[in-house]
Design a protein that fits this description.
alpha/beta, disordered N terminus, seven-stranded mixed β-sheet, 10 helices, 27% strand
Length: 279
């Protein structure tokens, strides 16, 4: 088989972004055999409505998987887990930072860097640089496909690169444009936090990470996530990252900017069709 081409498979993996940005983040990953939620940073009723639109009841979730404790990623995790008896999957420092917000929920600890099975999914976490207790990204496999998630990170290293390498769909932060952030109406302390290696990833660094991933020539889709409303835009992010990839002679990555408050869907069947055209 040519680089990254997949065997024809019956099972479809579907990934739906419910929302992406500082006002809330939630990502649904599901097959006909199960579903899980990565982050739960929207109000409970909005999560329930999104799940209903996807044809799912919250009780069918194999788990609510958290990247870190910040409210735009964890807002209703405890309430949703308690109401529908869904386990929360996270590491101990994140669980401790959430404290009472997840009390009474079934919290299952997943040490950073470990791998677990959850329904039809295999999950492996990896550390990311961010100003939280123990922030992580995830490599999630199901049905011979892989989704790599790294949202909320101020820089990237070999752990992040290796954590995303197997992904067919990469969900990566492209938070800000450097010049727009300098001019944005934020306090200097806030700007320093965002600029820091434990803050948020800018467009150029996101492009450099994708260029490293794309150096193997394997076809991938990349979702640009967690965009700043005041210091970035989909057009700016797509333009800059495409330029970075072009300079690196990487033409195998299909880019999409995630909407802030509207769903976007990736399906393995559609990706397979693109692979057949690409190779």
């Amino acid at each position: 088989m040519q680089g990254g081409e997949k065997d024809t498979i019956a099972m479809t993996l579907r990934v739906t972004s419910f929302a992406s940005g500082s006002s809330g983040n939630a990502l649904l990953i599901h097959t006909q055999d199960g579903a899980l939620l990565v982050d739960c940073g929207l109000p409970q009723r909005r999560i329930e409505r999104h799940l209903a639109h996807a044809g799912l009841h919250p009780s069918v979730l194999a788990g609510i998987v958290l990247t870190h404790e910040h409210g735009d990623h964890s807002l209703s995790a405890g309430a949703l887990a308690r109401r529908h008896k869904v386990p929360i999957i996270t590491n101990r420092p994140t669980a401790e930072a959430l404290g009472g917000a997840v009390s009474g929920a079934d919290v299952r600890l997943m040490p950073v860097g470990s791998e677990i099975a959850l329904g039809p999914f295999s999950l492996r976490s990896f550390p990311v640089p961010h100003d939280a207790a123990a922030p992580v990204g995830y490599s999630i496999r199901a049905a011979h496909w892989c989704v790599g998630i790294a949202i909320d990170l101020g820089s990237w290293d070999k752990d992040v690169l290796e954590g995303l390498r197997a992904a067919d769909l990469v969900v990566i932060e492209a938070n800000h444009d450097r010049e727009k952030l300098r001019a944005a109406p934020y306090d200097w302390a806030v700007k320093q936090r965002i600029f820091s290696p434990r803050g948020h990833l800018d467009n150029v660094d996101a492009g450099a990470l994708l260029a490293q991933l794309g150096a193997d020539g394997r076809r991938r889709t990349a979702w640009l996530a967690h965009m700043s409303e005041r210091a970035n835009s989909p057009n700016i992010a797509l333009t800059i990252i495409r330029n970075v990839l072009s300079l690196a002679a990487v033409g195998c990555i299909e880019l999409h900017a995630l909407p802030r408050n509207a769903p976007l869907v990736w399906e393995s069947d559609r990706h397979m069709q693109q692979l057949e055209l690409f190779y």
